[in-house]
Amino acid sequence: MWGGRLPLFFCILAAVLITFCRALPADSESFQPIRLSKPAPTHKVIIKRTFSHDKGAFTEGLLFRDGFLYESTGINGRSGIRKVDLETGRVVQKHDLPESYFGEGLADWGDSLVQLTWKSGKGFVYDLKSFELKSEFSYIGEGWGITSDGKNLIMSDGTNRLKFLAPTTFQPERILAVHSAGRAINCLNELEYINGEIYANVWLTDTIVVISPQTGEITGWIDLSMLRKRIPQDAGAQELNGIAWDREKKRLFVTGKNWPLLFEVEIARGN
After folding, report:
1. Residue 238's CATH number
2. DSSP assignment of 221-267, as one string?
3. Domain-located, residue 139
4. Labelling 223: which of 99, 154, 262, 266 has CA 20 to 30 A away?
5. Residue 80: domain span
């Protein structure tokens, strides 16, 4: 993950990274077979509402539960978890990580929050209400995004592979190779499980991919680049990285690293 402010050339590069991620060869070590298929359609979004968001938050994980947003932030010395009031963007509860950790993805499981770290190979489990640390766990490789399908925790590590973890031992039970038209799709970042599909930010782009958890096939590309028009150019906003789903009211929220705004959007499906 990028630990600082993006240089100008990265902003230009981001425009072509979708093509780059689509073009990478399939991962031969993945457990899932890759079948050739037609490329998935690309969808736009409609902005339903706009909310304030702390532009100092380097968003790495986001979820919605019981009327509040829960967010994991990155950067050493600035990492932690927080509970955020949706309507105002105000942080109502916070827990900071030690400076040695770079916070990454965040998921809820029962009465707990599960947070990854980037290169430390360590995750943390907190009490949902008090944010008190309950336990720690270890994993091999980098930690990027994490979500839950109700049976497993699903973790990304920046490659095209998603690991389905046992929620009690945090050991991988299945590995899913993500692909589109026979090509591996790498750079998978923050995750959210929505209506039986996995949504994933593609690192350094303003794109979300929709993934079949059974086959790893991408069923849709969501282009959110138009959200940039709503963000002031001098805001220092970096890439899109934050997906939260309100299961009760069927609302989809997105934001990004150091974005001053959070958006409720609707997917305008179509080719």
Report:
1. 2.40.128.630
2. EEE-GGGGGGS-GGG----EEEEEEETTTTEEEEEETT-SEEEEEEE
3. yes
4. 154
5. 8-268
